[in-house]
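Ticket #318: bound-state structure for coenzyme A.
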Amino acid sequence: MIEIQPGSDVDIDEYHAMRCAVYAVDYPELPTPTRQATAAVLAVPPVHLGERLMWQAHLDGRLVAAATSYLPVDGNEHLAIAQLFVHPEFRRQGIATELLRAITPVLRERGRTSIEGRHVTEGGAGDHWTKALGFRAVHTTLTQILNFGEVDRGRWEVAVPEGYRLVRWIGAAPDDVVESYASARNAIADAPAGLVTPKWSVDRVRRVEAGLAKHGVECRTVVAVDPDGEVVGLTELEYRPLNPMRLMQGDTAVLAAHRGHGLGLAMKAAMLRWFTADRDGLREIWTNTGADNTHMVEVNLRLGFETARRSNVVSLRL
Ligand SMILES: CC(C)(COP(=O)(O)OP(=O)(O)OC[C@H]1O[C@@H](n2cnc3c(N)ncnc32)[C@H](O)[C@@H]1OP(=O)(O)O)[C@@H](O)C(=O)NCCC(=O)NCCS
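RESOLUTION: The complex was predicted; output attached.
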């Protein structure tokens, strides 16, 4: 009998063992997760995705599956982002389907009418399962990884395009730029994505900053400012003390009127020089980018990222 419990109270070692087994089967192209990375995933949610709900499924006392759902806000209140995985030894017994059936009423009660799954490998088990349940692919994503031990750092010597200057901060955006920064963040809405991108406001900026600070995440931001003092582009990179070797890329965006000048490359290069100048022991950066977002993919390749994986975002009306 499957027992499904809500909550995040999970035995880290058991959860980690299941995660490693899933990675070996479903994501062999990615490095095996370290225990530290698993502990960080459990302790530090991706704050920008909203409230996190978790469930675990046990069979005869053994952890056999887990589900996580995020409830985004600021214009995405119809959406639940969900990730389910089942231990490879316990597949094709209906466990994932039962787990999804158990969590769906909770998501509906929270007003969510659509569920979105990410990182689904085409032709893999997740693809077959989501298709069997009626999900359809809405977007394709590339996961790109930069390895600090292998990269040629000369790639990051990039000049700032004429007429612009870069401003940077750790944590909270300075008061004098926060309004124009919040407004520039809406430029990410042009990036092809499965997720309906949130409406950015100063209030949302401050909420996300507070959430990151609460979880001990150091978020660094580099923005491009035009001669009028307006923020016209931005990039963010997160450092989690619980997983200190891996940086996670946040949004990168340039306002439409300022594209094509190399601002994206200049901002990201400046960020890489800044982080590596004052943090030792970094091993890699991970970023996810829309497969058809060719400019962003190309910028990442020029900076030394390599494309590790291609996957789909899938969606189902609840
Ligand atoms: C996808 C996953 C959660 C499915 O778990 P599961 O418990 O084996 O799935 P179920 O037993 O509920 O499958 C129900 C139906 O989906 C289809 N299905 C599931 N896995 C399949 C596979 N590998 N090949 C073909 N069809 C499959 C079948 O129609 C199956 O019914 P059947 O066994 O009677 O033929 C599991 O394989 C997994 O953890 N994959 C890695 C993570 C992932 O991709 N998650 C999904 C995206 S969030």
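RESOLUTION NOTES: The longest strand covers residues 136-147.
TICKET STATUS: resolved
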